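re: ur question from yesterday

yeah so i grabbed the chain u mentioned. its 213 aa long if i counted rite. heres the sequnce exactly as i have it in my notes:
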Amino acid sequence: MSIIGKIIDRHIEKRRLKIHGAFRKKLKNETPSIIANNCFGTMVYHHLGLRFMSPTVNLFIRKEEYLQFISNLRGYLDAEMTEVTDDGTKYPVGELICGGKSVRIYGMHYKSFDELKDKWNERKKRMDFNNLFIVLTTLVFTKNDAEVFDDLPYENKLVITGTSECDRPYITFHKVLKDESYDIGKFVQYESRFSTKKPMDDIDYVGFLNGKK
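ran it thru and got these structure tokens back, copy pasting raw so excuse formatting
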């Protein structure tokens, strides 16, 4: 990389840090337990410089199984994670079974199943059910999905989506999620080397964690 390129990168990084530093100054709740279906929660923790108070870090859970997971959160957190070897992925996959129903945990940022399981068990001990935040990021949010969310006994719920079959106060729309071919993983990534914000930064996640309605 050229000297000019390095200078540009340092400048962009400073601007990124300044933006997330401004977010941190507004944050009042520094110990949230964020239960997310993908890396949205992980990046919120990173941006705000917070300790991981949730096991759902550096991984993803498919929407249907995530809805099942949060519907019986304590039950699945009490379940022993076992290894899945037939999923066809290149990264470790764990499985939780509760009430005869399976939820698979895709550890795409972990090197081994043992690492995934150890971190899962370590972080779930930090869970605070009195400071819990449920976050689902999905391209489409259906009426059936809403029925699950409506029944959740948790006050702090957020759905980030591009399309919804219903209207709920906990739903937030984002334009990039309207494209069904959109790689949802890019929602938490910088769009280019020169970007200073990510699509996820359009979401007022600080306000959400502070209890803003």
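noticed a couple things. The beta strands are 33-36, 82-84, 93-98, 101-106, 132-137, 140-141, 157-161, 163-164, 171-173. also The mean pLDDT is 94.
anyway ttyl
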